[in-house]
Amino acid sequence: MPKVNLSHFEAALLFALFTSVVLGVVTKKTDRERLMYGLRSFAYFVVVMFALGWLMYLGHG
């Protein structure tokens, strides 16, 4: 089995993607609502990931 070597950023994006898909599927009733909620939650994950990254960068000095 080949070894997968992901950076922290890639791993965070994969987590955001999979989590958004699951949240969209289990929380909404129609396909359109699922898609929109999944895209919105993925965007929120990415925005928060960048915000926390900058916060840690600025806090480190």
Structure overview:
With 61 residues, the protein is mainly α. The chain has one domain. It contains 2 helices and no strands. The longest helix has 30 residues. The radius of gyration is 15 Å and the shape is flat. The N and C termini lie far apart (41 Å). The model has no long low-confidence stretch (mean pLDDT 94).
Short descriptors:
61 residues; mainly alpha
Please outline what is shown here.
With 61 residues, the protein is mainly α. It has two helices and no strands.
Poorly predicted regions are none
Quickly count the helices.
2
The separation of the N and C termini measures 41 Å
Overall pLDDT: 94
| Basic shape | flat
Q: Regarding quaternary structure, how should these chains be classified?
A: single chain
Order of helices and strands: HH
- % residues in beta strands: under 5%
Radius of gyration (CA) equals 15 Å
Structural class: mainly alpha
Number of strands: 0
What is the share of helical residues? over 70%
**Could you describe the largest sheet, including whether it forms a barrel?**
none
Overall tally of structural domains: 1
Give a topology summary:
Elements (H helix, E strand, L loop, with lengths): L7 H20 L3 H30 L1
